[in-house]
Design a protein that fits this description.
single chain, about 150 residues, Immunoglobulin-like, four-stranded antiparallel β-sheet, three-stranded antiparallel β-sheet, 2 helices, 7 strands, HSP20-like_chaperone, stress response
Amino acid sequence: MLLERREDFFKPLRQLQREIDRLFEDFFAPVTRRTFEVGFVPEIDVYETDKELMIEVEVPGMDKKDIKVKVEDGVLRICGEKKLEREKSDRNYHVVERSYGKFERAIRLPDYVDAEKIKARYENGVLTISIPKKEEKKAKVVDVEVE
């Protein structure tokens, strides 16, 4: 009898724990599951070297003609559309996890890059954008002696 009351006492706590676990699982779900409702959002990496700012954008399965890159008022805009390829009637889909749709990514460029000399290359599903740094703004390293 005492054991039954104890089980009843902890039942709401176990239900709460299961609900919290489900919330965390949904929040940390793979990007493909979370972006299904909002469409295609390509992932990007931004890094810099001594000479340039580099941006890599994952856009697998796209043609380069469907990708546009432009700089406007100091903002780099990458936009395009990953098209849905379900027009073949001989396919009977069971699961569709890939995302499709229009996208736009905007990145404010720092003032030390030369947007006039921007270059973009598309290869193996990755768009690589390189923006050289201005000559006068390249960081100089000065070693300071500590006394």
